[in-house]
Amino acid sequence: LLLIFLTEYAEFLHCKGKKFTDFDEVRQEIEVETDRVTGMNKGISSVPINLRIYSPHVLSLTLIDLPGITKVPVGDQPPDIEQQIRDMIMQFISRENCLILAVTPANTDLANSDALKLAKEVDPQGLRTIGVITKLDLMDEGTDAREVLENKLLPLRRGYIGVVNRSQKDIDGKKDIKAALLAERKFFLSHPSYRHMADRMGTPYLQKVLNQQLTNHIRDTLPAFRSKLQSQLLSIEHEVEVYKNFRPEDPTRKTKALLQMVQQFSVDFEKRIEGSGDQVDTLELSGGAKINRIFHERFPFELVKMEFNEKELRREISYAIKNIHGIRQVLPTGLFTPDMAFEAIVKKQIVKLKGPCLKSVDLVMQELINTVKKCTKKLATYPRLCEETERIVAGYIREREEKTKDQV
């Protein structure tokens, strides 16, 4: 048992039961699995490769290695590769229970760091962001990142930690991790700009900081978590008491359950229209927000697109005024347009609004029906109820649509 504990090994979720003790094989397996999931030509995928490493020399941490932002697509990458990677990154770093390691090379301008920019969007107060500065050994001679590491240039609440990783030459030369850590320690101790903060730099210190943050997080959230579990336990015990004398065929229970589901559908629909739902869609507009956009952006846009011939309109006004006066002389100095002529012209112009109005009605009704379909997904366990609810509500919406079009 002691021998097993002291032996470092790794396991992949897609290779259950297989232990990897050679970490060169681990690297090869990551490359093979990446090619299997994304293809052989620089494709991407949001499906993670789950790797667990067991070692007495590392701290307990869960890390998610996210890709860097790709500006120009290569290989089989889609044209919108930058947006896809950005969306993938946001899915992870938006979670409130994760720390963000904003990794930035020291030989680039910190103000242009994509990592810091994305972290700022989801963590504006900097409560979850730790800056990690790499490639300190590759900076031009005579330059250093002292101001950054001392948290003076672009301050972060949790500061910055500098690390020196193995180069590709070191990896190809089979330089092991222990030797790399010793070289990293030597670099910070011997560099005149960093030796005064060497104890707060390097990969081991970064591990220690992350482990401490994990410990603090567990300590802070454990009381609330325990309280939540106790509350759930009491709720389950109460349900158990209720169902002790449960009779599945009791018609009153069926009726009550049906009413509860219909009521929940009504609440969900109302929340999606009012914008007070529990889940917020971050990918597209939907529900009340989309209807609001139709009224305040799409409808005015359709009005602006309407063709308007001022010369023709002035001619129509002139003819209308003359026709109202008949054989009477039309005075050129008249200040007011006759009421009948004014109404005739205005009514003719208002008729032109019918097209954009009907188009807006169609768009609003379609969004309402889409909202109904999203709400009925919670009833998917009962296909017949789901189908009937959608049919009845959609039918009512279409009936209101016809009445609205008649009014238009």
From TrEMBL:
Pfam families: Dynamin_M, Dynamin_N. Keywords: GTP-binding, Nucleotide-binding. GO terms for cellular component: cytoplasm; microtubule; plasma membrane; presynapse. The keyword Acetylation does not apply. GO terms for molecular function: GTP binding; GTPase activity; microtubule binding. Residues 1-223 form the Dynamin-type G domain. One of its GO terms (biological process) is receptor internalization. Signal peptide: none annotated. The keyword Glycosyltransferase does not apply. PANTHER family: DYNAMIN (PTHR11566), DYNAMIN-3 (PTHR11566:SF54). This is DYN3 protein. It comes from Rhipidura dahli.
